[in-house]
Amino acid sequence: MVSIFVHMGQINLEKTLTGYLAPKDFEADLKIELGLMGIEILSQHGRLFICAGEAQDVVFAQDTWLRVEILPYTSINHAAELLKSKARRWSHYSINNHRRAELILDKVPSAKIKRYDFLEEIPKTTIGCFALLSEAEMILTPETTCPLPFGEIEFNEDKINPPSRAYLKLWELFTLYGYKPEAGMKTIDVGSCPGGWTWVLQTVGTNVVSVDKAPLDPKIAALPNIEFKQESAFGLRPQHVGHLDWFFSDIICYPDKLLELVNRWRESGLVDNFACTIKFQKPTDFETLFKFKAIPGSRVVHLSCNKHEVTWINTKESK
Ligand SMILES: C[S@@+](CC[C@H](N)C(=O)[O-])C[C@H]1O[C@@H](n2cnc3c(N)ncnc32)[C@H](O)[C@@H]1O
Fold first, then answer.
1. Ligand 1, from 210, 212, 246: best to mutate by most atoms within 8 Å of Cβ?
2. Quick check: CB of 234 below 6 Å from ligand 1?
3. Domain stops at, among 123, 151, 179
4. pLDDT in tens, 178-189
5. What's the average model confidence in pLDDT over 186-214?
6. Residues 172 and 308 in one domain
7. Structural element, H or E, at residue 279
8. Which of 99, 132, 151 is the last residue of a domain?
9. Is 319 inside any structural domain?
10. Structure confidence by residue, pLDDT tens digits, 46-74
11. Which of 262, 267, 279, 302 could make an S-S bridge to 309, C-beta 3.0–4.6 Å?
12. 139 CB less than 6 Å from ligand 1?
């Protein structure tokens, strides 16, 4: 892997360093976002950007490396001892000397890589992550923000029931991020076809108003507790739907149109919580992304299964 050092040899190791790991193929977006946020990039190693300063909330960071250190090591055993002194569980992000790094990883407790079931408990203990820069120097974090390696989750998928793979976004949001409506709640799913999200919302026991211009998959439409409205979500009046515990949207539209839609529902005062996919064309509309982020109580994340899109969450508790 090619590493780019912006000021190689001048990284001031006294400084607080933070690492931001881009989702696969989104290095360019992460780089732009870091620039827009005024975060100084010191070096880039593939998807990993080492930056000056304390960790900030960066959307195109799939995972964030806290308190990054760059340390010399003399042998595999020495590296393993260093790691063991700094964290309980480790994962390896490969930059250089891959084989050597794997031998080091064999000598320390490692973070389990496995597929999860929907709503399975995620380990709570933090993990460290390291990478070898050379035969004599390693970079490490004793703690990443996500308890799963590289901020990614893989599921034991349901290949039978959901009509599209979009359901994985809600599985991730509910399982890894812990945002989930309770059984008996009223939810709306706009831009719902063919029905993956509506299926998830129905399986967790909510009463779903499902809205799309296109028809729902008949298998999903036949399930109980789903009221399907075949119309444009932009014409729907909040007052005609009434109070909602959760507003979900995976609608295909420009980010500024989604912001308008969301603002209409926020201003109605009828919705407690939101989770919406913001879908981008090229180039990424950072201006609107930052407007979503600025809404009080908001969090914007790039889910493992988000492609050129991110997920905006706004909950009653976080306001
Ligand atoms: C990515 S798909 C949604 C996939 C869905 N979440 C699932 O799990 O199967 C986006 C949907 O947005 C719908 N859409 C686009 N414009 C719309 C509008 N004005 N009103 C309602 N739905 C719309 C499309 O018909 C399409 O079904």
1. 212
2. yes
3. 151
4. 999 999 999 999
5. 98
6. yes
7. strand 271-279
8. 151
9. no
10. 999 999 999 999 999 999 999 999 999 99
11. 279
12. no
